[in-house]
């Protein structure tokens, strides 16, 4: 059975994914679990209309106080420093959430590929391929799509996928 092979494969431990971005990573240590939770909450909140309104109000408040501080260097330094610190910290929080989402998406796609009989299992784990390999594979799929639209009635499910052609398996 196809799933028996999948269950016994070495990717059960997600060895193809860096530890820091694997879904199991956050469960290993209380600090990483807390960071993962915090990053998820902050990135969800930062993308909300309320967060945008707070940011706009902060800038408006800063602009309004300009005349009171005679548009001094210190007044400008406040907004420059504040935005720099917030941006610096948000990069790490957003990247953590993006890593987690990316791994989850790849796992879902891998499951779809492995569960479909006609799909090529060779695309599972393709995210570790080099840029050149991905470009070759994309070109092969483009050729396949144009060929299938030209002779759509003649297409059969026994044709090899571009992934199989790239690796020489059929």
Automatic annotation (TrEMBL):
Residues 157-170 have a biased composition (Polar residues). Keywords: Membrane, Transmembrane, Transmembrane helix. It comes from the Bacteria. Pfam families: Iron_permease (PF04120). The keyword Glycosyltransferase does not apply. The chain crosses the membrane at residues 50-69, 75-94. GO terms for biological process: transmembrane transport. Residues 1-22, 149-170 are annotated as: Disordered. This is Low affinity iron permease. It comes from Caballeronia catudaia. The lineage of its organism: Bacteria, Pseudomonadati, Pseudomonadota, Betaproteobacteria, Burkholderiales.
């Amino acid at each position: 059975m196809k799933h028996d092979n999948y269950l016994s494969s070495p990717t059960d431990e997600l060895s193809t994914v860096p530890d820091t971005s694997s879904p199991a990573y956050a469960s290993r240590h209380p600090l990483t679990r807390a960071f993962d939770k915090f990053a998820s909450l902050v990135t969800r909140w930062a993308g909300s209309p309320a967060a945008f309104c707070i940011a706009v109000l902060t800038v408006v408040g800063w602009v309004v106080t300009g005349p009171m501080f005679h548009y001094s260097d210190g007044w400008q330094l406040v907004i420059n420093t504040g935005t720099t610190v917030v941006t610096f910290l948000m990069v790490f929080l957003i990247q953590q959430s993006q890593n987690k989402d990316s791994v989850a998406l790849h796992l879902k796609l891998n499951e779809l590929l492995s569960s479909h009989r006609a799909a090529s299992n060779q695309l599972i784990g393709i995210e570790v391929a080099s840029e050149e390999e991905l470009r070759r594979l994309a070109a092969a799929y483009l050729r396949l799509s144009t060929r299938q639209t030209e002779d759509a009635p003649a297409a059969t499910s026994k044709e090899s996928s571009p992934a199989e052609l790239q690796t020489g398996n059929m």
